Amino acid sequence: AARLCSGAGGEAEAAGGAGTMLRHLARKLRASGPVTVAEYMREALTNPGQGYYTRRGGVGESGDFITSPEISQVFGELIGIWYISEWMAMGKPSTFQLVELGPGRGTLTEDILRVFKQLSSVLSKCDVSVHLVEVSPKLSEMQAAMLTGGKVQPSPEDESAYMKGISKTGIPIFWYRDIQDVPPGYSFYLAHEFFDALPIHKFQRTEKGWREVLVDIDPEVPDQLRFVLSPSRTPATQNFIQPEETRDHVEVCPEAGVIVQRLASRIEKDGGAALVADYGHDGTKTDTFRGFRNHKLHDVLSAPGTADLTADVDFSYLRKMAQGKTATLGPIKQREFLKNMGIDLRLQVLLQNSGDTATREQLLHSYDMLMNPEKMGDCFNFFALLPHHRVVHPDKKDKPESKSPLPPVAGFYELLLK
């Protein structure tokens, strides 16, 4: 039911009728020629009138894909524990901004806030607030309904947030269109299935050197799109292909690079950490661009605006774009991260407390979905940005015995559960 890993099978679904978005793109291509895959994705996903996310955003059973938080509450609970664990390891600062990029329906934030409430005695002296970065008006309405019961108000024009409210657990929540609008300060960032939907450039190695893959109208078939190669090097080819590249086909997401740079700069300046959970690879895969509609693989060029478009995250690129401003951990497979976070123990507690067979079966089914290597266990990875001092003592090299050992970073190391 989840979005499939790249390379997994599935029926490409024929789209009925050329829609408004296709006609809009066809006119544009006839007038100005082929566009980059990044520009095509941007139009198909976030065009103000007809974009997939701005118009519908199909998360959940009735949508086009299901995400981990929709499968099991345990996923979000363990991420909530990760943030509290890191907050404690960093000396319990007096403020704590939880910033989520692309929060979907708000399910993950809700699960995290439940953990914060359960551990409110630990967080009692800390000023906690939630900051959601969301471009879709429809999704921000869903988030507001889930997290505040709909009790939100638009913010005054002079404020950087466009909407604000109070969560059901009494924590202030703010909505922004861009990460740059989020106020500076000690923050924990969360990007779950966020980077995979950002626009990518695709490149192909040819006998004449690197060429960019573009989207164009098919001259043989009216209003049908096709991939073509750029006749010469494009600016993106010159900027994004590394001289040491060994693959023949490469996907690069410059927007992801910019966001990681911003996160790394903020963490370096104000403290905190970022946790990225997504499907991806460490600079090894080539062609991962794909579409999803009604939980099935869908031709990326067919009926744009009606399907989710996505590509695997290249974690080696994210690491490079952190530019040494922060330490990075991972990518580590989801099943290893959740196991290290104590998912098995949590499952046992929930099974013991569940009164009926149906609930127990659901718990075991969702555990299998998250952990099975054939399902989400190996497709999804966790990756973190942390301040350097969180991983290495500044003066450890000179006086190795002078400092108490740093607590291990939860999830990325096997913890001894006491």
Task: Please describe what this structure looks like.
With 418 residues, the protein is an alpha/beta fold. It has 15 helices and 18 strands. It has helices spanning 20-32, 37-46, 52-55, 68-71, 73-89, 107-118, 137-148, 235-240, 254-270, 315-321, 334-340, 343-353, 357-371, 373-377, 388-391, and strands spanning 35-36, 95-101, 127-133, 152-154, 163-166, 172-176, 187-192, 201-206, 209-217, 225-229, 249-252, 272-281, 290-293, 296-298, 308-310, 313-314, 327-333, 380-386. Strands 2, 3, 4, 5, 6, 7, 12, 16, 17 and 18 form a 10-stranded mixed beta sheet that branches. Strands 1, 8, 9, 10 and 11 form a 5-stranded antiparallel beta sheet that branches. Strands 14-13-15 form a 3-stranded antiparallel beta sheet. A hairpin with a 2-residue loop joins strand 8 (201-206) and strand 9 (209-217). InterPro entries: NDUFAF7, NDUFAF7_sf, SAM-dependent_MTases_sf. It comes from Emberiza fucata. Pfam families: Methyltransf_28.
